[in-house]
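In this supplementary section we document a worked example of the pipeline. Step one takes a protein sequence of length 164 as its only input; no multiple sequence alignment statistics are reported here. Step two produces a three-dimensional model, which step three serialises into structure tokens for compact storage. The input and output of this example are shown verbatim.
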Amino acid sequence: MADDENPYRPPESEAFVPEEPAARVDYGSDEARRQIRSARIALMIVGLLSLGVLTYHTVELVREMRRLGVTLTELPAASVALILVGYAVCATYVVLSFVAKRRPFGASLVGLLLYLTDILVGAVEDPHTLYRGGVIKIVIIVVLVRAVGAGLQYRRHVRAAGPG
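The serialised model returned by step three reads:
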């Protein structure tokens, strides 16, 4: 059977144009690419670790409520809202890790500000959390700060390259 007679081959027309593989994003330098990749990984790790910790605390809360004979409907609305906000923050970190591939400056900046806010809110709630995991917090902050710089470099690179 000749290629022209293949019934599984899509018809040749202007409407059907096969997609080309996605082009690799040009970040302007290998160093910028490494820093942005590190930030993407850091955002994903923060999101997934936060999700794990939040889920653990939520399960512990439900166990304690069952032990005390309290139903979930008796849980104060503020507590439910805080849990939902916590899950939304976790999801935001994960989403930002994907957004950072195409918008590294904005995603890294938002991730950094969200992370710093998260640390400050935790410190207001319990001041001891400020220094717990301090080395990891500093590493994540440094990675995100460098990624903001790399994102700014990428933004300048894109603007210098012009449209197209």
